[in-house]
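Why do we care about 3D structure at all? Because function follows from shape, and shape follows, mostly, from sequence. That is the central idea of this module. The next example makes it concrete: a single protein chain, its amino acid sequence, and then its structure expressed as tokens.
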Amino acid sequence: MTSLFDSHQLGSLKLPNRVAMAPMTRARATTDGMPTASMATYYAQRATAGLLVSEGVQPSLQGQSNPYTPGLHSPEQAAAWRPVTDAVHTNGGRIFAQLMHGGRVAHPEVAGYVPVAPSAVRLDAELFTGPKGLLPAPVPRALSTAEAAAEARVFGEAARHAVDGGFDGVELHGANGYLIQQFLSTNVNRRTDAYGGPAAHRVRFAVEAAEAAVDAIGADRVGIRLSPGGTVWGMAEDDAPELYAALLDGLAALDLAYIHVLVGDDEDAMVALRKAWPNTFIANPGGQIGPRPTTHADAEHWLGLGADLVSFGRAYIANPDLVERLRTGAPLSEDDKTTWYQGGDTGYLDYPHHVPSAEPLPEAGAGAGAGAA
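And the structure:
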């Protein structure tokens, strides 16, 4: 049976194990979206993962969802990522940038733009905006048909910047209620043009975004994260089986490197997706927005069901040496939720590696006997 510690070929990359670090927002970038020296240390600490997937990176200023998140929409930002990716590579790791467009999950106080979405359907929630705290989400502006096509193309431009910044590839964020899933949804996407209506039309934006990235950097460097049937940020996918069958058909035609699936409650449906997908399948068993950390048992279960890699999110916050702890059975440290997004290095860089207990000293006279045996 496949083990977490077996190697795996992902495109041109030989992964030394099947552990992936899931993307997690940590909000440690500068106000203008530049990565920092602390971020280089953070990712380098976790470089023993078979694959690192970065926190969500906005592919355009319009796409920024949260304050203090990094971008990949300018040559300057690409250059600023170089110390991060170099640090990961120096420590023997591989890292993809997750390209995350917030769509309607955004506020003008953060990026200075009225958010855009498939349709002008307001998110019924409050959003963190930085100094002004939580504010109600505004009504987004519906993209025109031409604008929707242009917004898909920004993923290609950002993918090009990612490779210029030293990333090994990109993962499109098509899950958790952000722009790509908003187009997939049956409640937020109320369009009647080629991007709305039946499932075959609602997958168009996701496929065009992936195609733009493939055209920019090659299919073996592009993956996508999906949350079939997911309800985060007010999503509904009333025709999920038909929807994801159409989506996987479109993505498979592009020969994407992988899909990264947030496992839902219907295990049979997830296994069916695994069987339908021809390339690498990454399972994230923790569920939507990590209601519980993925465990070693979860990982082995999903490898047994056909997953090629298993991603761990919360477990990686407090365990930079997670692969080694899983390999040796060492206990996992607990993360401090209050430090997830607060900024600074506390709760970010200060989680230690596991130190095994010292072997007890032999009793007097025991050493000679043991050496002679």
